[in-house]
Amino acid sequence: MLSFLPPLLRGVIASLLLALNTILTSVVLFSLALIKALVPVKPFQTLCSKGLDQLVSFWISINHSILHLCSPMKLEASGFESLSLDRSYLVTSNHQSWADIVLAQVLLNRRAPQLKFFLKKELIWVPILGLCWWALDFPFMQRHTKAYLKKHPEKKGQDLETTRKACEKFKDRPVCIYNFLEGTRFSETKHKRQNSPYNHLLKPKSGGVGFVIGAMGHNMPYLLNITIQYEGKVPDFWDFLCGRCPAAKVHMETIDIPKDFVGKNYMEDREFRAEMQCWVNNIWEEKDKKLEEMH
User: Fold this and answer.
1) pTM for this one?
2) Residue 190, in any domain of the structure
3) Domain for residue 40, yes or no?
4) Tens digits of per-residue pLDDT, 106-123?
5) Pairwise CA distance, residues 251 & 212, whole Å
6) 180-214, pLDDT tens digit by residue?
7) Residue 262 half-sphere exposure toward CB, CA atoms < 13 A
8) 132 lies in a domain?
């Protein structure tokens, strides 16, 4: 533990070690991804995908060791006991910081299949990581504003079509699909702008999870509902690396996905959209209560 060092120095050390781990891992990852692309034989590509996921598990384990060395954060976690590497899950959590993703990766690593995120298209240009996400089949989505869609109605539903194509890739292997129902990180400004009915959360959006459940629900019976509470100020990623987050509590609840949601078309079935929104609203009400307890 380097807790005796100043936070700034710990942050620099953690950043350098994480960058080195990412660069070295990405060299192997790109090589395997290239072999996978050059040999268009499905069983072989499936084997390569498993190898890529194992490589990511190793990368996450090293990252965890680096963070444990540099960031003396007390982490209390519950509800992660009964998971399987051979089962697909839909995963969601409240979203406050980039640190949320790190905590979810660490707690689910080697307990459940690798997390796949729906990412903004612009993130493909992030040095090294953008190509890694592409090689690992992370779906990139082009999000349009309401004003843009009003001028270009033909673009409506484009994100959901991207979701459908991504789901096709994951039908033959276990996967955890991570979707932030709030769609963005929580802030007091956004909370007030939305006039959110929840004390600690933004309003949930059902589109992404609705399409995933409709397309993959037969292989994805459970939603992993993760609730994260940081002690004190919510850390940005730099604060997290510097060890300025003294403690965090993480609770996970495994929720059965209603069987009658499976196979439905979110884009065309208005009744299903209403049912899905009602379902996620109920989950968010309980999450808000849980956060109140954790506070």
Assistant:
1) 0.87
2) yes
3) no
4) 999 999 999 988 777 777
5) 23
6) 999 889 999 999 999 999 999 999 998 888 888 88
7) 13
8) yes
